Amino acid sequence: MTDSERDRRRRQLDAWGGATRTLAPVPGRERIGERLARLSEQGAQVYDFGDWTDQYGSEDGVVGELERRTAAALGMEAAAFFPTGTMAQQVALRCWAGRTGNDTVALHPLAHPLVCERDALQLLAGLRVVRPTAEPRMPTAAEVRDTDEPFGTLMLELPLREAGFVLPTWDELTATVEAAREREAVVHFDGARLWETVTHFGQPLPAVASLADTVYVSFYKSLGGLSGAALAGPSTLIEEAVAWRHRYGGQLFQQWPAALAALAGLDLELPRLPEYVRHAATVAGALHEALAGSGLPWWRVWPRVPHTHQFQVWLPYEAEELTEAGVRQAEETGTVLFRRWSRPPGAPPGTASAEVTVAGPGLSWSAEDVRAAVAEFLEIHASAAPSGS
């Protein structure tokens, strides 16, 4: 990172972190003292500070408590804490490959292992990949049945982030899982954001998780933890996964701060997620109305009604200038509506998308607040955009 890039990044963090109005906290971005104070305050509400610090994830410490609580929340026999979701999913998929005798995994080309993990499934785990569909949604039951190669595991990312945090209907999901069972495949859920799917599905969390043989969940993406993930499933597979966790270098000496933050997320943030999902529909609707009346030649809010508390906004401008407009809005007005914009792979030049998350701070935003923030953002962008944009 060059000095100019570092200065630009610092300016963004100062602007977003210093804003007085935002839809959600900046993920993982707090001043160190603030984060330590919050961990101390919230941790004391969920775990006995008189207990000893954890070493190597001992069963009688905070990591063990987190594993038991996670398994119970998901309705699974057991769970194991992992430092990253990338590690947890590689371990899960290679364990299933050994048990099924088939090293082929069926998953979406937009799924996290193919987009964000540098081919780790193939290079580290030696697994092959087939893609039941390339459509920006979860594969259908028919597509799973018609996949022209055998596979041992079907992996479903719920929600599918890169496609706009989209989910199938409950009936579609159960049919797709059943299609995999018909092919004698096991099912693994990439549930990094599984926590917030229950409102869309109309089902409790254990009912959603029970459709899969194993589930991975993240503790920081929606629950506000420091880091870390869990793999949950049958106790015999989790025992095997723990052995692979050690081989992968995931048996850290002390993980209690991350585990403590995760317990706080389970107790304090998880119960609020349905409220965030409901209010995201209000925010997305107001964004749609504001952009519809803006005179822009093209734009999109996707999904039109969010499936979770996160969704995408697309605009016909370059990502860098839109990010700059958002930083200026935070600096000049104290309001953060959008943060970082990007041009997704395959999108034409002059188009960009941003992810919008609605969490605790966003619950105070009315539809009129959102419309006013959109108008302000577009005005700031227009005042600074290059000629011809």
UniProtKB/TrEMBL annotation:
Keyword set, alphabetical order: Pyridoxal phosphate
Listed Pfam families: Beta_elim_lyase
Gene3D superfamilies for the chain: Aspartate Aminotransferase, domain 1 (3.90.1150.10), Type I PLP-dependent aspartate aminotransferase-like (Major domain) (3.40.640.10)
Residue span(s) of domain Aromatic amino acid beta-eliminating lyase/threonine aldolase: 54-289
Cofactor requirements of the protein: pyridoxal 5'-phosphate
Family as reported in the entry's similarity comment: Belongs to the threonine aldolase family.
PANTHER family: L-THREONINE ALDOLASE (PTHR48097:SF9), L-THREONINE ALDOLASE-RELATED (PTHR48097)
Name of this chain's protein: Threonine aldolase family protein
Organism: Streptomyces ovatisporus
